[in-house]
Amino acid sequence: MAILGNIIKGVINLTDTLSSDANHVEAQEKILRTLLETAKETQFGKKYNFETILLSDDICESFADSVPYFDYNKINDEWWHKLHEGEVDVTWPGSPSYFALSSGTTGKSSKRIPVTDKMIDAIKSSGIKQVLSLNHFDLPSDFFEKEIMMLGSSTDLKEKDDHLEGEISGISASNIPFWFKGYYKPGEDIAKIDDWDDRVLHIAQNAKSWDIGALSGIPAWIELMLQEVIKYHNLNNIHEIWPNLQVYTSGGVAFSPYEKSFKALLGKPVTVIDTYLASEGYIATQTRPETDAMQLNTENGIYFEFVPMNPDYIKADGSLKKNAPSLTLKEVELDQDYILIISTVSGAWRYLIGDTIAFTNVERAEIKITGRTKFFLNTVGSQLSVNKMDDAMKNLEEQYNTKITEYTICAKRFEDGEFYHSWYIGADINADDKDIANSLDEFLKDANKNYRVARSKALKGVKVTVIPVEKFYAWSDQNKKKGGQVKMARVMKEDKFKEWENFVND
């Protein structure tokens, strides 16, 4: 009998029963007040009169009226650069213990996003919430005795001045609670290996000695790791070596594009739980099996605002215009795309994280990731969001009986002077690229009115190039992003796309 598993499951069940459902609107107002109180004596708090905001009748409205939007470049140029010059109390009291390195999907160099001790505490609290929510997924008691494979970036953080630097997954893994270390795989020694391919080789070599019950990580890199373990041990599927694998916790990107290829690596079904950990904080986690939507972590160090997704509010570089209206959690509506804005215990204020979301349940504060502001393709008025692109890939998967996990697109002006949507698709498809382009074009015309109008005017046509998916992984590897908290650029500008095409054709 799984005695320890029964005890752990019992504690989770009891704790979940005793805790009541949060009032998310009230929780958010409390978080904002705490953020403002804590930071009112910082340089940022004095500049934007946090003391005065705290005295207002509606601090949410006053905060939105007083503080402008910031993207990374703006807040770094105006404020965070001071942290690297030794200044303290800049946008948050003291100085951060960590900086999360994130080149994102379109940046040319690493962003350095402050991560305070308060943020580490907030991430841990959200992690505990995720563990407690497992009670809703009807998992057997022995699951809670199995080991958990967390695959992220290296935990070998680099010392720089008075702080440590690394990707957020590495920072989080280096701060796991002591009681969890016995369950954590690949273990501290392997997790510190900086070279991702070398780390995966060590995982494959040790795989037989582990009893993995759950996986956690970015879908693309989890798939590659599973493929290497299967290949190394000459298996048909991963359950032949990890028969007790029952849960996969995805994170950071929509899982749906990877669903078909991921399932092909399994011997039996697993429970997929979506989470949303970004370099700026732990945004949301799926808390119940009835939906694949995620609940915003409204009680743990982050205040959320939502800007309706409208091309008129977005500048060419993906940042927000000053007149873009923001809504609070009590003002949002279902099935509307919103640009996510956060203020955090790491000193990010009205910060454009770059993702778009839609609410599936407002009362429960449940959302789905719908895309990226920089991946919103509006050249010549096509207004294509990532979720529409993902839907188009699913349609191609069904039509051509294939798996498509990676793709990228550019609205490119060709030699004839006309604009075309140029797609690169990572797949093994036995069909002519022109036929695939026609199928893709017809699907998008049916699915998106703005696209259909654009195709009748300035958007001349669609071009498709099918390449091995390994080309996408090699591109990430070349850009030093392999295995990390990375999202492949679904949309590229022409200059970056030229680099991409040169790489593909080299």
From TrEMBL:
This is GH3 auxin-responsive promoter. Residues 389-495 form the GH3 C-terminal domain. GO terms for cellular component: cytoplasm. It comes from the Bacteria. GO terms for molecular function: acid-amino acid ligase activity. Residues 299-362 form the GH3 middle domain.
